[in-house]
Amino acid sequence: AVSVGAVLEPEDVVSQYRLHAKEKGIQGPAAELLCKPAAEGLQVCATVLLEKGWRYATHADKDVVAPTTQLTGPMSGFQTKEVDGMGRYWVRELDDGLEGMVMVKPDALKQLAPVPLVVAWPVPGIVIAWVPGNPSLDQVLSVGVAKMVAESNHPISAKLYRFDEGEWAVWGEAKPSTAD
Fold first, then answer.
1. Under a CB-based contact definition with an 8 Å cutoff, are residues 86 and 134 in contact?
2. How far is residue 71's CA from residue 102's CA, in Å, rounded to a whole number?
3. pLDDT in tens, 62-111
4. Is the pLDDT of residue 179 over 70?
5. Is the CB of residue 40 less than 8 Å from the CB of residue 11?
6. Phi/psi of residue 92, each to 5°?
7. Beta-bridge partners for 9
8. Which residues contact 28 (CB under 8 A, 6 or more apart)?
9. CA distance 129 to 133
10. CA distances (Å), 53 to each of 25, 56, 84, 114, 144, in order?
11. If 0-12 CB within 10 Å is exposed, 13-18 middle and 19+ buried, where does residue 72 land?
């Protein structure tokens, strides 16, 4: 049995991958990523976890149906970080083909805090989460997310999401700081 994870990608990932596959001479099911719409603006895509690293699952992977792995460990791979005088937040930057599992199984976030967190997936391999409501912290982290998205050649989303009442919804959108 293969271990299946999940990553998040922008909405156009399937069509972009199809073009990429065509350039490489790949056609048919292997050119079609195994993704489905997640929260607004995002697709959740299955990954096949390899001995070292991971790869995207495609429709050619007959044994891949849905993510099978769990986020394990004391904090599901998140590390606690601090913004001086403002509070803490959590970052997961393992790029292990599992960062989409947070969206698939949001219960993993309960290990970080008992309240609904704001979560961002700005670029591949990185998830940022925090307890919203502190305007200074909200702003610093939003600006950080916006900057990551702006500087990436593979941006995922500048939107900030929150799992509330059983579904993921957009909580806000990160914008670059105007106070420069």
1. yes
2. 8
3. 999 888 888 887 789 999 999 999 999 999 999 999 999 999 999 999 99
4. no
5. no
6. -120, 115
7. 43
8. 60
9. 13
10. 24, 11, 34, 31, 27
11. exposed
Mean per-residue pLDDT over the chain, rounded: 94
pLDDT at 136: 95
**Amino acid letter, residue 66:** A
Amino acid at 19: L
Cβ contact 5:101 at 8 Å: yes
What is the residue whose two structure tokens read 């073009």?
19
21: its two tokens = 């596959």
Report how far residue 109's alpha carbon sits from residue 112's, in angstroms, rounded to the nearest whole number.
Answer: 5
Are the beta carbons of 90 and 78 closer than 8 angstroms?
Answer: yes
- What values do phi and psi take at 153, rounded to 5? -90, 0
Give 49's strand partners: 54
